[in-house]
Amino acid sequence: MMQIIFERTGGFMGSKTSLTIDLDELPSDQAQTLQRLLDEANFFTLTENPPTHSAPDGFQYTIIVEDETGRHTVTTTDTTTPEELRPLLQELSQRARSQRRH
Amino acid sequence: MHNHRCSILCITPPHMLHEIVRNGSATQRDLALRTIVTSEQIRGLRRVSNSLASLVETPAASVASAAPGNKQRAVYDAQNGSGLPGNLVRNEGDPPSTDPAVNEAYDGSGTTYDLYFNVYGRNSIDGNGLKLDSTVHYQKGYDNAFWDGKQMVYGDGDEDLPTAERIFNRFTISLDVIGHELTHGVTQHEANLAYWDQSGALNESLSDVFGSLVKQYQRGQTASEADWIIGEGLFTVNVNGVGIRSMKAPGTAYNDPVLGKDPQPAHMNDYVHTVDDNGGVHINSGIPNHAFYVTALELGGYAWEKAGLIWYKTLTDKLQERSTFQEACVLTVQTAGELFGENSLEQQAVKKGWAEVGITLAAETTTPSGCLPSVMNALGLKMNAG
Ligand SMILES: [Zn+2]
Ligand SMILES: [Zn+2]
Questions:
Q1: Cβ(B213)–Cβ(B303) below 8 Å
Q2: Chain B environment of A55 (Cβ under 8 Å)
Q3: Where in chain A does DSSP place strands (E)?
Q4: Would you list which residues of chain A are within 8 Å, Cβ to Cβ, of chain B?
Q5: Contacts across the A-B interface (CB distance below 8 Å)
Q6: In this complex, do B146 and A83 lie within 8 Å of one another by their Cβ atoms?
Q7: Which residues from chain A sit within 8 angstroms of residue B140, using beta carbons?
Q8: Domain ranges across chain A
């Protein structure tokens, strides 16, 4: 089983938006999409940098992916995100914003 | 030219000039305003030449290169991507676009430029006519705006979600957000306040202060007429709230089942210690925000004229990278003394503003006031306090 924890802090409002996804509990097409985005981001090879301060009003993001083999944490900001990570960030951000009203 | 400017300053102490602006005849008012602006331009030259010698030798050349009042704007479209700046869609002087976000970014940065130039004599973000670049339609579902160190960046809010789930509208919708972002650029070129903890909250507060003043200036509102809301219009109808922050009553801007309650404190007793948001820079900014509001309300009239001038000059001349709330209190009181006189009503109003949020002068210090220090200051010379 695989779990994705997403957290977004800062921004103009300075509030926190977070989301936890158990891939096993998602419909399989959605789980596959996330798995593909993780692969395309080469997520497990991205460096685990310590969090940095964001640009004024920029977001800070933390993505933690955990499975039987271990746990990998990536922190990033709007201005420092590697291009290959952006589609995953976009997907997680949309899911996090969408579940606020559920 | 330069000598002439200086002699006006020497004849009329700054606080007198402001008295004239308030009570003088139309002609007197114009002359006094021009003099205030001129003293700002002399300081602008300091940034260009950075030495008294070159200032005296080449003032005319410096003025020409600064091209004061010549605003240069460009709006770009990121087309929902992350590449900056994106495609140029509206340049200075181009007719309006059919895209409201483009026009809001263009007009809003223009109004912000106008406040800084017309009221404080500042020629753009860097004081030297820097082009104002804005990018709209940044990413998809980007419910935010930021300053990336070189330009303003705006998202479209929750446009990618079903209507019932949307919390945010596009971020250019709110003029004070545009003034807020552009002010981050001004701060970067001046005090360069470090963006974390108290210095970060001061950085945030200055952006809210001048963001709100841009809106008040555009609407022609006095301190008591203004709503002092930051981010009015950003929330969709789904949210129970009037905006993101309230300078008048921090902690009351929204109270919503989804977003929770506005977490801003209005007093040092309620300072929030957190690791999120660079140490709560958007939360603790409520404290200096409210100090400004109380000062402005106490002084009455247009907040940009006196309270705004005191804060502006403190930002450009006194605050430093790691300044604290306490230091901001001391320095704004000092600036008020220099501009309006020791123990002036203006200085008392500043003290009252900070006292209201639980911050007082650690020790009463007397600073020199009147003509000489302001001229020396204008020429970039330091004077020993005492
Ligand atoms: Zn900000
Ligand atoms: Zn702290």
A1: yes
A2: 146-149, 195
A3: 3-10, 17-22, 59-67, 70-77
A4: 9-16, 53-60, 78-79, 81, 83, 86, 90, 93-94, 97-98, 100-101
A5: 102
A6: no
A7: 90, 94
A8: 3-85
CATH top-level class of B64-173? alpha beta
User: What does the alpha-carbon distance between residue B99 and residue A55 come to, in Å, rounded to a whole number?
Assistant: 27
- A56, B203 in Cβ contact below 8 A? yes
CB-CB under 8 Å, B282 with A10:
yes
Catalytic residue ranges of B: 181, 282
* Confidence category of residue B16, pLDDT binned at 50, 70, 90: very low
Distance CA B15, CA B373 (A): 13
Using one digit for the tens of pLDDT, what is the confidence trace for B296-350? Answer: 999 999 999 999 999 999 999 999 999 999 999 999 999 999 999 999 999 999 9
Question: What φ, ψ does residue B153 adopt, rounded to 5°?
Answer: -135, 130
Tell me: pLDDT of A44 over 70.
Answer: yes
From B141, B165, B259, residue closest to A93, measured CB to CB: B141
pLDDT of B27 reads 40
Contact B243, B254 (CB under 8 A): yes
Residues B353 and B293: beta-carbon distance below 8 Å? yes
CA B334 to chain centre: 19
* Distance from residue A16's CA to the centre of ligand 1 (Å): 16
* Gap from A85 CA to chain B (nearest CA, Å): 12
Closest partner CB to B258 (pick from A13, A16, A100): A100
For B363, counting Cβ atoms within 10 Å of its Cβ (0-12 exposed, 13-18 middle, 19+ buried), the class is: exposed
Q: Identify the H or E element spanning B178.
A: helix B175-189
| Number of other residues whose CB lies within 10 A of the CB of residue B17 | 25
B143 touching chain A per CB within 8 A: yes
* pLDDT attached to residue A102: 57
Stretch among A3-17, A75-89, B1-15 having the lowest mean pLDDT = B1-15
Does the pLDDT at position B372 exceed 80? no
Whether A12 and B231 lie within 8 Å, measured CB to CB? yes
Answer whether B276 sits within 8 Å of A93, measured CB to CB: no
Written as one string, the DSSP assignment of B262-326 is ----SSGGGPPP-SSHHHHHHHHTHHHHHHHHHHHHHH-S-TTTTHHHHHHHHHHHT--TT--HH
Domains of chain B, by residue range, sit at 8-50, 64-173, 191-386
The three-class DSSP label of residue B43 is helix
Superfamily of domain B191-386: Neutral Protease Domain 2 (1.10.390.10)
**Whether B277 contacts chain A with CB within 8 A:** yes
pLDDT at res. B68 = 61
Q: Phi-psi bin for B93: left (phi > 0), alpha (psi -120 to 50), beta? A: left
